[in-house]
NAD(P)/FAD-dependent oxidoreductase (Nocardioides pocheonensis), 1036 residues
Amino acid sequence: MQLNNVTLGIAEWRDLIRRVEIGEVREPLVNIDDSDAAPWDAIFVGGGAAGRFGAAYLKAMGGRPLVVDRWPFLGGSCPHQACVPHHLFSEAARELDYMRWNSGTLWFPKFDDSTASILDLISLFRSGRAAAHAFMNWQTKEQLGVEYVLNAEATVIDCHTVNVADGSYTARNLVLATGAQTAHPRIPGIRKRGVFDFASLIEDLDYEPTKCVIVGGSKVAMEYGSFFQATGCQTTILSRSPLMRGTSLHHVDEDLRIFVVSGMRARGLTVHEDSATLEILGDEHVEGVRARLADGAEIVLDTDFVLLATGELPATAELVRTLGIELDEHGFVEVDTQMRTSVAGVYAVGDLIGSPLEMFKARKCGMTAARNIMGEPYTLDLSQYPDFLHTTYEVTWVGLTEQEAREKYGEIIVIQMPPNGLDQPIPLPLAEGSMLYAFTRPEITGYQKAVFDARSRRLVGAHHVGFGAKDAFQYLDHLIKRGITIDELGEMNELFLNPEHFIQLSRLRAGQHALHDL
Amino acid sequence: MQLNNVTLGIAEWRDLIRRVEIGEVREPLVNIDDSDAAPWDAIFVGGGAAGRFGAAYLKAMGGRPLVVDRWPFLGGSCPHQACVPHHLFSEAARELDYMRWNSGTLWFPKFDDSTASILDLISLFRSGRAAAHAFMNWQTKEQLGVEYVLNAEATVIDCHTVNVADGSYTARNLVLATGAQTAHPRIPGIRKRGVFDFASLIEDLDYEPTKCVIVGGSKVAMEYGSFFQATGCQTTILSRSPLMRGTSLHHVDEDLRIFVVSGMRARGLTVHEDSATLEILGDEHVEGVRARLADGAEIVLDTDFVLLATGELPATAELVRTLGIELDEHGFVEVDTQMRTSVAGVYAVGDLIGSPLEMFKARKCGMTAARNIMGEPYTLDLSQYPDFLHTTYEVTWVGLTEQEAREKYGEIIVIQMPPNGLDQPIPLPLAEGSMLYAFTRPEITGYQKAVFDARSRRLVGAHHVGFGAKDAFQYLDHLIKRGITIDELGEMNELFLNPEHFIQLSRLRAGQHALHDL
């Protein structure tokens, strides 16, 4: 189906995607300008965040990219199975939590968790996600001018050639952007019905879980587990290591970690850290999970619902076979800081190259490949970045932890809320949307900490639990890298009541020649 | 009551403040170190945001400040009657709005606005606010080391001397920080019962309003009006000028304004712009308001509740009489950029010096006075700052509007969400906590716009409706002043789904040599 000469609106794209999904349309969706004789500068194999942003950047620079994807939409797993449903679940978790704590007070009715359904929310997402898909297709074509072939499996033939449907396309460069999927650990019984990963959860769940066991301690474990628990589905996390202390998260401050994990437990989640999942029990459908706890005891957890949250792996076998690209020790594609693989002219981006499996990384390595392909040498530094996850809170952090800063700089100061040494929780909200808590349960409004190198007076780390600070941490990351000091922070214009109070707390100390904790 | 040698915790401070409020304690609360023979560098008359931060800064620099306040707590009107209840109301407005739109879906019960009470929320605030007061007293004494005398009226004797209770204190400088109160316009009937301003609303409301008329179009009008309406109290705003276009708000983008005001109307608020309030009707208690609308027609609005939101004025008569300080044309104290009044050695800070009546301004002019008093020449630039207000949304803006930027730079580009030219609302949440809306009513998730000078590629304005961006706008203000470009924004690390999408939208355009709108 050639679409290059027509302009489809959101409603039309949505209808077309739906027709693909129900099998009414099987042919590729082709948005290629046949009248353009220019050669392809790059073919992006995979149109998720990395491929789509890379192609858009290359096009903006004056190049000609082609994006191919097996799905009938661009944007990849994010709007289809990953970040978007995760945020929908996390918003629900926060709201359910709010309605529980306030149950029976003010205008809040008695909270009845029998009305909170995991299946309902997944159904809502499933029925609505095509609108986001439609937007991606529309924006990429109409606003970004990027050509693409969708709903067609691509076969990489060599380092310049990709076959898609009936066509064969040749480009100066290939950019591999085929993503990753949940790694399925070798646990007996893992193929039983009722065992899901984040993708199959969206596609296949067709009953309301009553109890949940999560295998793994990743962000997905914490995020989805907090949602399940908030709906009233009793949830247990089986994690091999302490939550937030695994290798995939860097710079997690211990005070922040304690606030977050104890908050999960206070909301009824069972967290077994340092545990091993031994077996998924049941006939066809999961009925229980056998596990060994940190103290060596074996337990059996009754459950009708298991979520695997054990991290992700890329599907690279085909690429290794065809192109001979090298992988790292974890199976991800090895790239340099310009996103070049071991094969000349072939780049790899996104989840295919490993952690962090985050949106900014995907998009920025797409951009990095594009710039290098277009002759502008550009390297991507992934050594420092802000990070976040959700429980019933939004948790954000950037820079160094207090302990890391102390080890690196020796003399540091910490400003935090609540401060140390108080006899009771302070009634100031430490995050957005926690003002009611401030008057009823001040101990749960949030937590925040900023760490400064006492000598240079530079901000070196910031940590926040609660809502409303995530957006700011993007800019704090930039400012930390540029060496922002407590003095400069103290001269900024805060918007009170700000979710984090770093500016005004800095101002309370900035007058000091020798800085002190606050 | 001398408190300097004891350490009171939050609970003890709270109890002491309560005993003052019920008249059990009438004496001044004195936190002065009598063993310290150092002279006072400054007396801060008024311990609100401006006075308290000024004193803290001066102390941090090694000086000796004294703060005096007639209330038994520091922090001023913010935690007592102003910003804190405003944020409590705005959180309630957002939450009530959310529960209305989602009424009867998912886990949300049928929304019953008979359970939403203005009086209940005010009572909750009133009974809890002393904890915030207690924290201010504790922090100022124990963490900041600032001396003070509370619960005592201060009388300014001359430019070095203040009498407080039985004592007379002399200092090198005076810093006047006595704040402002709602300006009461000359409208017949304005003294009737049932007519409130933001302060008396907190202190005196003792019935549940059924209908509300707000006189004035200030931030307070929009913020409190949106809350009243959200509780089910039918609210009408009578504003002399279009909302958000008054002289007290700068740089309000017209698209943002339209989204905000039409959103208020969509939620049932009646807004009469360009109207005049003629008379408050009723016997002892207000029963109605007579007004003239923009078209000249006179109407009478039935109501049992009127809120005055006509801006603020300082109480300066005493200061003029005693010190002879000069006022500006609006009655605010005239100061230079160092916060010096017309009288040598006398500074003025906070709401006393006029708009913006915002927290950052109060605190920063306190700091400015402190630095100059301590011999460090320092000027405060209030020409550009970020701003915000609440409806059922949080609305934030910084820098120039699209139109201002066009007039100043000629060639500009705009990136915005939703984009122009779409046939239907996009299902991407444009603010925090709006993911459910994205799947049910995408037209109300939010609005965002960033404006760039096309030639220099610099960000010159940013505008957002929705929640979650306020914290970030503090740092965007700083970055705009430092000349951040679309290229630098595009290289930052976004935390997706970010409430505003400026980083990733910048990246979609930054590759272009000649920039285009998005």
Summary: The first helix of chain A runs from residue 10 to 21. Chain A has a mean pLDDT of 97. DSSP finds 15 helices and 23 strands in chain A. Chain A touches chain B through 111 residues (CB under 8 Å).
